[in-house]
Design goal:
Layout lengths: L3 E5 L9 H18 L3 E6 L19 H12 L3 E5 L10 H6 L2 E3 L3 E5 L2 E6 L9 H10 L2 H9 L2 H13 L18 H10 L6 E4 L5 E5 L5 E5 L7 E5 L4 E5 L4
Bound molecules: manganese (II) ion.
Keywords: Cell inner membrane, Cell membrane, Hydrolase, Manganese, Membrane, Metal-binding
Pfam families: Metallophos (PF00149)
Organism: Pedobacter heparinus (strain ATCC 13125 / DSM 2366 / CIP 104194 / JCM 7457 / NBRC 12017 / NCIMB 9290 / NRRL B-14731 / HIM 762-3)
Length: 248
């Protein structure tokens, strides 16, 4: 019975290099094969690629197994959503046209089986991080994207991959949980809850699997990442749970 909804983010394919990324891609394929029989919808919630920039006629090399598998899933009638992350926001029509995915640029609010979900990659939300919020505006600016596309891929992708490599994940700084009040996405979720009800807030970006009770009725799940955790969330029509693939 295809009734489950799956959520995952932060595969960071391409990082730190080809060989390690390929092993991760194989693992992701095993996971997709594992969920396919029960999957009605799949939400890929950002930073699937460590860097993706789509030119009008050119895409980055690699990741063909994932692309083929997603096309197979959407061809079979499974709805797949692709959220723009802070590493892979430069998508145009390739993912929708070739892979049948629906592109989500910002927050997505959905209701399934009477449960309300607030979904977002998680970047640029909540208090602080003003430097990134400014950068996000530049990165998402159509004129800036048009100018970047004029740079030949060999140079443009070189710069971009160098930039991506500087990120916290590639430098394996371990993420730690301090307290709910210091979790900026929990703070952001609570602010929304003061105005309107959601049963679940699902974010990525934090690189730390979290399942936090916000007020007794609502929860915040962070999807973690796939370099250390292989973490994902599943909604079985009744409840949303955090799970780990190929982990004891
Ligand atoms: Mn990430």
């Amino acid at each position: 019975m295809k009734k489950n909804i799956y959520f995952a983010s932060d595969f960071h394919l391409g990082s730190p290099g080809y060989a390690e990324s390929r092993l991760r891609e194989d693992r992701i394929l095993r996971w997709l094969n594992f969920i396919t029989p029960t999957c009605s919808e799949l939400f890929l919630m950002g930073d699937i690629f460590d860097f993706w920039f789509e030119y009008r006629t050119v895409i980055p090399k690699g990741f063909v197994r994932l692309q083929g598998k997603i096309a197979e899933m959407t061809d079979a009638g499974i709805k797949v959503y692709f959220f723009k992350g802070n590493h892979d926001m430069w998508v145009h029509d390739y993912f929708s046209k070739e892979m049948g995915m629906e592109i989500v640029s910002d927050a997505l609010e959905i209701e399934r089986n009477g449960k309300r979900f607030f979904l977002h990659h998680g970047d640029g939300l909540g208090p602080g991080d003003r430097k990134y919020k400014l950068l996000r505006k530049i990165f998402r600016n159509p004129v800036c994207q048009w100018l970047f596309a004029l740079v030949p891929p060999r140079i443009g992708l070189g710069i971009a991959n160098w930039w991506s490599g500087r990120s916290r994940l590639a430098n394996s700084n371990e993420e730690v949980f301090e307290s709910v009040d210091q979790e900026w996405l929990a703070v952001y979720a609570k602010e929304i809850l003061s105005k309107t009800h959601f049963d679940y807030f699902v974010f990525g970006h934090r690189h730390l699997p979290l399942n936090i009770d916000l007020n007794g009725k609502s929860r915040y799940i962070n999807l973690g990442e796939w370099i250390n955790f292989n973490s994902y969330a599943v909604f079985d029509g009744n409840d949303l749970t955090l799970n780990y693939f190929e982990k004891e």
